[in-house]
What does this fold into?
Amino acid sequence: YSLVRGGGSFTAGVVVSPAENSPGLPGYLEIVGILYLIIGAFVFIRRWSAAKSLHFYLFCLVSFVLYCFSYTGKLNLFDSSVYWLNVTAMLLQPALFLHFCLTFPEKPGFVERRPYLIPALYAPGAFLLAFHALVMSGTITLPLPMLSVRWLLDSVEMGHLALYFAAGVFLLFRSYRRANVPLARQQLKWVTRGSALAVVPFVALYAVPYFLGMASIPADWMKLSVLSLVLLPLTFGYAIVRYRLMDVDMIFRRGIAYALATAAIIGFYFGLVFLFADFFRSNALITSQGGWLLAIVVTALLFQPMVTRIQVRLDRFFNHERYDYRRTLLDFARDLGSEVHVDSL
It folds into this structure.
């Protein structure tokens, strides 16, 4: 390339090297997005008639698009569609979240008296989307290089997301303090705690520093904050399915049991590989297809007994005063379901 700088011209060569890329964060975000979609679909199918279930499903669907859709830069018709779907999801997700927080578990009186408040929640996102489209189409030109314009748009949209998420958590705590109905308090207890644990680390460690320009490329400590985002659909899903119809505490402990069992089996596997690396490397049976099938069968046989054992200990630890009663009810229900003689029944 022939370059001119300060009145002088010179020739510079182009050095081509691989771009620095951290596949861990995009991969984790894709897992989070798939979990959002699965949880939203499960809640909607299980309790489609419940209040806010459709709203929650739309929130999960938009979150799936935000975390899983990533354009390549080719910007052909398909790639451009992926790009604009991602931008739209970035601006729509916080509005859906704030709308949900404002009206869950029921719409407050000041919102009933001012019906224009709900559409007003979506107005800033619609304005930012229109502005983004006008800038990218060249209708509005900014005195900045295109890369700086893209980063400016991303930072403004990230600030919009952080503001709406923080406002949503504030509204949930406000509703929790004012709730008088036990069921509503039980639902809001899980929603407020889960939202705070999911939103506060992400907003404080990622969204706000990104919006303030502290890091145009997110640092590793910023990327770790997205690990908490998976708690948001879990706690909202628990609350929507209704505490009276689905025991939230039991589901929570069951999830812990499955997670611990999975971690134990994975740890056991890697421990064996670490201790007997030479044996695995030299034995063709282990590395063959038959060896993998054997490992899958052994894992399937070990998983459920391990889950059951962990579940029993979690029940005794979390709920020891009611453990014997639940065990008695389960045994009674099992005997009742297996009895076929009317007189004995």
Notes: The chain has a mean pLDDT of 79. The two ends are 91 Å apart (CA to CA). The first helix runs from residue 24 to 46. The chain has 14 helices and two strands.
